[in-house]
Every structure is written in structure tokens, then in C-alpha cells.
Amino acid sequence: MKNAGIILMYNCSGEKFSKLKQIFAMLRLRMRVVEPDRYHISLGELAQGKGEPGEAAEPLPEPMLVFCYLPQALLNQVLEVIRVAKLPPIPLKAVLTETNQSWDTHQLHQELLKERDSFAARESEP
To answer: How is residue 41 annotated by DSSP?
Structure first.
């Protein structure tokens, strides 16, 4: 059976993220906190709980979420609940896809930053 839904969580520790974790638990989503010593492991392996820790990398400078194996309706529900709960913003969010499942954390992070910069550039155009 496919996993019901897993969230890879980066830099989402501490009190300010406790409500987010409660929401994920309420929706019966499994959470995997990804530590810097696992950044070299592919996203697909991380989602499956595989891969051995390696040398700790520099932690990401901001929080990031990767939604894995969520049906579209559940993903929409999760995003809506997060929005309504007025949680601290987590601008870097991704969905595990066939394209990015072989990427490691740093590659995904770089792609999300490029995407964010691209959106910001478009919004600032007259």
C-alpha cells in the first residue's frame, strides 16, 4: 500500500511550529524531520524512510516542507487548514514528483529559491 501521506519537514522545530505539527497529526499525516546529516539522500528515499546519515551539511536557512504521496484533495485541504490557522509562513513548499524524487535537499532548495525569485521578479514588473 502506498503511504497515506508524509511530510518532509526542514527547520520546523520549536514552539512556533507546534501548531503545524498538531494539524498534520490531526489529518493523520506522517511527519519526517530531515536533519542536515540526511540532506545528501534523495527526496524519494527520504519519503520512504531510507538512506543512511552522512556528514552533516549546513542547515537550510529557512523552513521547507515537501508533501509526499498526498492525493490532490488532501493536499488542498492541508494547505487550506494551514492558511486558515494563520501559521507562520513557510514559503518553500514542494510536492514530491517523478522529476524531483531523485533530487537531494540542496537541489530542491535551489530550485525553490529560483522559483521564488522568478515570481518576485514577475510581481515587480510594471
So the answer is: S
